[in-house]
Amino acid sequence: MQVMGLLETRMLDFKNLIILSANEGVLPRDAPLASFIPYSLRVGFGLPTPEHRDAIYAYYFYRLVQRATNVKILHAAATKNAGEMSRFLYQLKYESGTPPRERYLQEEIVARPARPVAIPANDEIARCLERFTREGSGLSPSALNVYLDCRLKFYFRYVARIREKENLVGELDYRTLGNIFHEMTRAIYHSFPGLVTAAVIDRVARDDRAIDQYARAAREKILDSEHARAFDDGTGELALSVVKKYARKVLEHDRGLAPFEILALEQPCRTFFVTGNGPRVWVEGNVDRVDRLSSGARVIDYKTGVDKGEFKSVASLFDPADKQRNKAAFQTILYCIAYADEHPAELPPRPGLYSLRAFFAPRRDDRFFLAGAPLDSIEAIIPEFRERLVALVDEIFSPGLTFSPTTLRDKCRTCPYNAVCACDGQ
Fold first, then answer.
1. Which residues pair with residue 403 across a beta bridge?
2. What is the CA radius of gyration of the chain?
3. Model confidence over 370-390: pLDDT tens digits?
4. 276 plus 394 within the same structural domain
5. Among 23, 171, 241, 306, which has the highest number of CB atoms less than 10 A from its own CB?
6. What are the E-state strand segments in 294-371?
């Protein structure tokens, strides 16, 4: 058997022929001539034209098949680039006087329903979970939120440690935008003296050059040099302008609360819980900001999304079936408890939410609201929150646990693991 192109068959005769890819655009080849000479000039001066090339291909094709005994010609019925059989096959079919026998081959494709993916706990998973019992590598509030959203997603991300696919996009996404904002505000407030007054805030807020420098320095720190250069165009400047507007809104809001004292910025905070299964499990993460007003300390969580400050009850924060479960409240209250455990001599701080999109409304409030009432203190809800949190952590470490997908399919639409568990949100 010999495998060759059409040009290599010149002056050769074969008894048995199998011609592949006999689709229009492939046989004859449909490609523009690599020439700067216009078509009309080529015709006028007798230079080769596409019609001349098609005639050459026709000669090669008919010369090849004229002495063969058995000829099989294959073409695709429908492909992305060529969905029609070659004109030469139409000529054989309708003009040759010897109609070829046609056979259509099609593989039957049966769509099988996707089998649900569920991972039962085993000894290997138990060993993977052991790292959460060591200080410095505990469960983060974000990880607990992921578990409440979808057990299977928690398994993929925090147990199996399957990394999400990183896609370089041509614009700053919300996550990167949020990271730049966090770094920018950290740098601004870190530059303030011990007591933040309205005059101190005004000095920075009115300095456009300083605000721009803080924004660009934050972008350079969050993005590597290659990605930072990719956002030096108009789109990148527009994204930075959004970050600067967010920062100005925070400064404007804080000016109305001044004077106050910054206690921590992007600081690690941790505590532990003893579960019914025995191990002491650490819960830890980075607090966006802790400050002290005249009314007491606050733990502030920055959100650049559409997070809201209302939640119905403590139980609703732990309800996986609640579509309106307030993840920001769960995270911030947990940080407040962790901070209170680290500072037992002080009163527990008040949770606060800086939902930056809401800061553009005429009236804004950084407090959380429990059943419609402002949550000015968490002392009354700490016992129930701790009890439910211990039960949640105990469930994660339970040997009879099955990491199953969420029943709220809307959450699957943007999940990076939806292709693994064959769930697309439908």
1. 119
2. 33
3. 999 999 999 999 999 999 999
4. yes
5. 23
6. 296-303, 310-311, 350-355, 369-370
| Residue 206 in tokens | 């009115």
Is the pLDDT assigned to residue 27 strictly greater than 60? yes
Residue written as tokens 């119905």? Answer: 312
Residue at 22 is within a domain: yes
In a domain, 329, yes or no: yes
Check whether residue 177 and residue 44 sit in a common domain: no
329 vs 353: CA distance, rounded Å? 8
Same domain, 36 and 165: no
CA distance 352 to 342: 19
416-426 pLDDT, tens digit per residue, is 888 887 665 55
Task: Give Cα 91 to chain centroid, integer Å.
Answer: 53
Same domain for 82 and 182, yes or no, is: no
Structural domain range at position 67: 7-94
Identify the residue whose tokens are 């000039």. 41
Q: How many Cβ atoms from other residues are within 10 Å of residue 416's Cβ?
A: 15
Is position 365 within any domain?
A: yes
Phi, psi of 341 (to 5 degrees): -65, -35
Residues 45 and 164 in one domain: no
267 contacts 280 by C-beta, under 8 angstroms: no
Is 15 domain-assigned? yes
Q: How far is CA 112 from CA 183, 195, 305, 413, in A?
A: 48, 65, 38, 21
Number of domains in the chain: 2
Considering the domain architecture, whether residues 260 and 396 belong to the same structural domain is answered as: yes
Q: Running DSSP on this structure, what letter comes out for residue 120?
A: E
Task: Report CA 73 to chain centroid distance, whole Å.
Answer: 47
Residue 100 CA to residue 153 CA, distance in Å, equals 56
pTM for the predicted model, two decimal places: 0.72
- Three-state DSSP at 407 gives coil
**What is the amino acid identity at position 257?**
L
Residues 196 and 81 in one domain: no
